[in-house]
Amino acid sequence: MPYDPRLVQPMREEMVRMGATELTTVAEVDVALGDPKGTTLIFVNSVCGCAAGNARPALAHALKQAVKPDQVFTVFAGQDLEATARARQFFADYQPSSPSMALLRDGEVVHFVHRHQIEGRAPQDVAADLVAAFDRHCAKTQAA
Amino acid sequence: MTGHVFHPGHDELHGVTVVVDTLGGKTHVGRFHERNDQGVLLHDVGSYDPTSGGTTREEFLRRTLKFGVRVDHQHLVVPGTEVAGIIPLGGLTL
Q1: Which residues of A are known catalytic residues?
Q2: Alpha carbons B21 and B28: distance in angstroms, whole number
Q3: Are B16 and A96 inside 8 Å of each other by CB?
Q4: What is the pTM of this model?
Q5: Does B16 touch chain A (CB under 8 A)?
Q6: Is residue B47 situated within a structural domain?
Q7: CA–centroid distance for A31 within its chain
Q8: Does the CB of A122 have a partner CB in chain B at under 8 Å?
Q9: CATH code, domain carrying B49
């Protein structure tokens, strides 16, 4: 049962403020993820005040770095059910949890952050892991 | 804030994905809800039973760490008398 939209609106806005594009329908997911080029991060948002409350600021911090994904999208678990289910098909090897994050490069999952990797950790620690993943997978190859 | 109570007003493990080992050799991984007189209540639980064959506890946990919890039970109560140990999955190193 989805929560009152008014309750989750600030959580949506937090994502948009950091530069993520919200995907709320299956069609939007298909357009966003259907042509996989470059690096894409998909954040599965959650109402969990503790895990998601740490994950969102962690991602916001990591996205301030120079090296970051080409695109950042977000779906909201428990709210936008069909869009979330569709998005999860793009990283179907990974069991659903929320919050969670999938980093894709040319459509392939190269890094995944599960809920259990966020629980009980400070945002800056989660952010440090994300920055390391971005450095590893999102750095542009220098042209010769 | 590492070490803080994850959900204030609840058990310090409330909401945390934990590994529960039992005296009988089974291992359950799920989101801790509470401990009460009945035992430990978990949500969204993946279970390993050494008698079912095919894999080891370490392989089960290694796969869970990489791919997440494959849910076998939406809810599970592990009787308190059977609990051998509880640790957060996120703190597990293999």
Answers
A1: 48, 50
A2: 6
A3: no
A4: 0.91
A5: yes
A6: yes
A7: 17
A8: yes
A9: 2.30.30.100
